[in-house]
Amino acid sequence: MIGITEHRYTLAMNITATFLAVLLIPLASGTVSGKEVKIVKLEIDSLTEIPGRDKQWDWWQARTAFVPALEGSKPMWITTMSETGREGVHNFHDIYQSVSLDGGKIWTSPKIIPELKRAKQNDGYEVSAGDLWPTYHAKSGKVITTGKTFNFEDGTKENRRREKVSYAVMDPKDGSWGPLRFLEMPEKDHNGNIIMAANAGNTQRVDMPNGEILLPVRYMADAKKFNYTSIVARCRFDGNKLSYLEHGSELNIPQGRGLYEPSLIMHNKWFYLTLRADHSGFVTRSHDGLVFEKIREWSFDDGEPLGSYNTQQHWAEIGGGLFLIYTRRGAENDHIFRHRAPLFIAQVDPDRLCVIRRTEQILLPTNEATLGNSGICYISDHESWITCGEGLLRLGKRKDEVNKVHVVRVRTVRTGS
């Protein structure tokens, strides 16, 4: 395993190489030529939905972890979700889970995870785990869910400056969850700025073969500004505790809330990072998952802006192709909050860093609900699942209905009999 000192030397060398590469690589546009991308054909199937509770609550930030068959046991699909009140903003409460043992045909009734209940602290704050993303960690055989904390003064007033990178560990052998824990981050970044309100909410991570974890994180570098800088942190996991080792590029824009909710994937020896911003979405790539090229706005391959803004985008690798999952403007969806429906999937040109327009397909159609808070679950090299809780909240024509969690299976098109 590469030591931290040696790794930082490698980072320094990569920074120089990446800087030179950025000067030579043009931004994606309709006029830029590149290697032809082999188009991967997909088939999309809806699996059994997980029903909501009642009209006062939505299942939000629903995401699935796949645990392969272990020691003769059946494979397991574990979906976690946040109990979210429809009144107010960020009204997050307890974390629930639903389990399938038959490939998403039958889901257990959602049950609360006691270790991840919203809890009142001695200082009067109520703290809730949220924006969680569970993923099976193959090296340890555990499921690690990473995310953030929501902090409410007197139970009602949110204080975003108190956010932390949260995580919890589940043992698939007996289904037990450990307590909510927090990743210890350094006090300052590479530029000497404070690291405040660091969190990994809604971020898609990469687990390396040696067990290390590349975890996208965002933080505030100025206590007076709600403007986020995004990084990828290299972490060690010992089967119980997650420990920060180092981080690479510090990515930021001055507009709005900066760059946040970064998601990472490894594809053909490159690491790709997509980032949310208030007015757009951004993308970049890296050789080592830490030091990244200059960011660029997402566009279609004809040069037109993608139109995804102020919501998450995530990745999938299916059948050897790289795919983006996103929402966007321009889909007869002006009546939907922040255009967060329908939910799309499209193949990405990994050299030009743009979305190939002709490959765009609808994963979940517009049904008077927002669909921006999705999660991706890797099943195999030819299959991934997308999990998404409907956002009914207090808005829209379906506000008096009970929401549901959608599960969509995406596979390469099978040929032959």
Present the secondary structure layout.
Blueprint lengths: L3 H21 L17 E5 L3 E2 L5 E11 L8 E10 L6 E9 L10 E2 L6 E2 L4 E13 L4 E12 L3 E2 L6 E7 L4 E2 L3 E2 L13 E4 L6 E2 L5 E8 L7 E10 L4 E6 L12 E8 L2 E7 L4 E6 L9 E2 L16 E5 L2 E6 L16 E7 L4 E2 L5 E4 L9 E7 L2 E7 L14 E9 L5
Antiparallel strand pairs: 1-30, 2-30, 3-4, 4-5, 5-6, 7-8, 8-9, 9-10, 9-11, 11-12, 11-13, 14-16, 15-16, 16-17, 17-18, 19-20, 20-21, 21-22, 23-24, 24-25, 25-26, 25-27, 28-29, 29-30
Walk me through the structure.
The chain has a domain of 139 residues. The strands form six sheets. Strands 7, 8, 9, 10, 11, 12 and 13 form a seven-stranded antiparallel sheet that branches. Strands 1, 2, 28, 29 and 30 form a five-stranded antiparallel sheet that branches. The N terminus is likely disordered. The protein is 5% helix and 43% strand. It has 417 residues and is mainly beta. It contains one helix and 30 strands.
Helix content: under 10%
Report the sheet with the most strands, covering strand number, pairing sense and barrel closure. Answer: 7 strands, antiparallel
> What class do helices, strands and sheet pairing give?
mainly beta
Q: Averaging pLDDT over every residue, what do you get? A: 91
Instruction: Give me the Rg, rounded.
Output: 20 Å
User: Low-confidence segments, ≥5 residues, pLDDT <50?
Assistant: 1-33
The coarse silhouette is globular
Distance between the termini: 45 Å
Strand content: 35-45%
Q: What is the number of helical segments per DSSP (H or I, 4+ residues)?
A: 1
Tell me the number of strands.
30
